[in-house]
């Protein structure tokens, strides 16, 4: 049943008509729990509240189904505007983005040029930009673009590696020459067994393996998970191997396990919350429901409230 619901939500997340309709009607059906707002001002307010509690942020201006150059350029401008607002307000936040938002499916050159504009702004502000990792079809192109931009912009840029992919251990070995700042995640997309571990247990084991590999390499890790088993295993590993607190951070999503977020921050770990905002919230919201169909109960309740 749970796997059926997961597939249904992942299917719905790709529905363009539903996406367009959702945009018209604004944040609904409990999406506000996972999305900070439609406007940058609302996002900055959410960041400030988190900062006040000792939690730092990565902001994501949501965008799905980019199919024209104009849309990709518009998206690039939103990213720069987000960096401008972070600098102007003085909040502690960096930026996360997706390469398809910036035109990766239209042309590599368009995407590269948009990324350069964003990274120039980030460098000016001494800030940091992380490329989120999308589905397997975009994996190699994302890694390749990251390598080029890392050479041009140094430590201003970071990437994400997904534990469910068989290739990730090898990717981390290859990427080590760049001393990359990597966010390590389990992986959020539906991938076939030809490329990804089908069993959760194998994903979890590989996740721990690549976290330890990356930390032992001496490179910076953003460990993005809500899973206590993984978090506890990281805590034990860093203690046993004298990994300094400055070499890693924990990350969680806005609205998910907020008490656990606070507890990690209070324990002295760097805790960064991924805060999405914008009117293109529908696909992101559906993917969050796919991850945890138990949240559907909460959504149904909020439908009756609104
Ligand atoms: P799971 O195995 O899903 O869950 C483990 C346990 O965590 C659960 O048993 C439960 O106790 C708790 N939990 C999980 N979800 C919830 C919830 N909604 N409410 C309450 N408890 C919960 N994926 C990508 O493919 N690319 C990315 O770029 C990417 N970036 C991410 C950035 C951040 C900051 C985070 C946190 C995740 C990101 N992900 C990304 C998603 C990631 O790949 C997983 O799909 C997602 O984090 C769920 O896996 P999990 O590690 O939390 O563990």
From TrEMBL:
The keyword Oxidoreductase applies. Pathway: Amino-acid degradation; L-proline degradation into L-glutamate; L-glutamate from L-proline: step 1/2. It comes from Paenibacillus profundus. Keywords: FAD, Flavoprotein, Nucleotide-binding, Oxidoreductase, Proline metabolism. InterPro entries: FAD-linked_oxidoreductase-like, PRODH_bac_arc, Proline_DH_dom, Proline_oxidase. Residues 44-299 form the Proline dehydrogenase domain. It comes from the Bacteria. This is proline dehydrogenase. SUPFAM superfamilies: FAD-linked oxidoreductase (SSF51730). Its cofactor is FAD.
């Amino acid at each position: 049943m749970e796997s059926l619901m997961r597939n249904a939500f992942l299917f719905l997340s790709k529905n363009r008509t539903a996406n367009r309709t959702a945009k018209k009607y604004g944040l609904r059906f409990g999406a506000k729990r996972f999305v900070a707002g439609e406007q940058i001002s609302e996002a900055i307010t959410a960041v400030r509240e988190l900062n006040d509690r000792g939690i730092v942020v990565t902001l994501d201006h949501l965008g799905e189904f980019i199919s024209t150059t104009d849309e990709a350029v518009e998206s690039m401008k939103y990213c720069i505007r987000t960096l401008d607002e972070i600098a102007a307000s003085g909040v502690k936040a960096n930026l996360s983005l997706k390469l398809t938002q910036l035109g990766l499916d239209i042309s590599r050159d368009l995407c590269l040029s948009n990324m350069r504009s964003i990274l120039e702004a980030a460098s000016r502000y001494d800030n940091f930009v992380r490329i989120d990792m999308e589905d397997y079809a975009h994996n190699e192109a994302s890694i390749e673009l990251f390598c080029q931009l890392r050479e041009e912009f140094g430590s201003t840029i970071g990437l994400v590696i997904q534990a469910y992919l068989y290739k990730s251990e090898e990717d981390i070995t290859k990427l080590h020459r760049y001393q990359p700042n990597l966010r390590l995640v389990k992986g959020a997309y539906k991938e076939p067994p030809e490329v990804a571990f089908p069993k959760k247990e194998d994903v979890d084991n590989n996740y721990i393996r690549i976290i330890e590999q990356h930390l032992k390499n001496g490179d910076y890790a953003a460990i993005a998970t809500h899973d206590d088993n993984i978090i506890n295993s990281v805590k034990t590993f860093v203690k046993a191997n004298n990994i300094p607190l400055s070499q890693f951070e924990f990350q969680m999503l806005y609205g998910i396990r907020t008490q656990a977020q606070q507890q990690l921050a209070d324990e002295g770990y760097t805790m960064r919350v991924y805060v999405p905002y914008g009117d293109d919230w529908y696909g992101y919201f559906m993917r969050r429901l796919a991850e945890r169909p138990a949240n559907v109960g909460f959504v149904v309740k909020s439908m009756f409230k609104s």
